[in-house]
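Handout, page 2. Input:
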Amino acid sequence: MDGMNSNVKTFYLFCDGCAGQNKNNTVIHYLCSLIDAHKFLKIVQVFPLRGHSFLSCDRDFGVTKKADKVYSAGEYIEMMTRACAHNPFAVTNVKPTDILDFKNWWPKYYKKSSTSVDKQKWSPTAYKLWAYSADTRGAVTV
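Output:
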């Protein structure tokens, strides 16, 4: 989030996966950390209805699936840069030093399991819009 304009106070994040996927535990903690670090006052995370996500990026990534076999990272980079001629992908070759150890960082600050305000278990797949706010740090409003 370093290159983002500091005047941006609300961040809208549209996800193409299910709210119940395991990766979302990490995403929740990351978004809470952005609020805690005062990067945003509010983050709104939206999960589209199943079968209703026909975003242009879906079509662009569909082009990459046409490749028969890929044998190296270089071939993936080449395939991605050529996938969409009208609006080419910007591909960044990530180095190991660019990757932060978020998996070991977040347990120091956040709990793994969660409950509702009234201490009941909740099902993340039941909600399509989640919000993180400076007014309710550490909580997800659905």
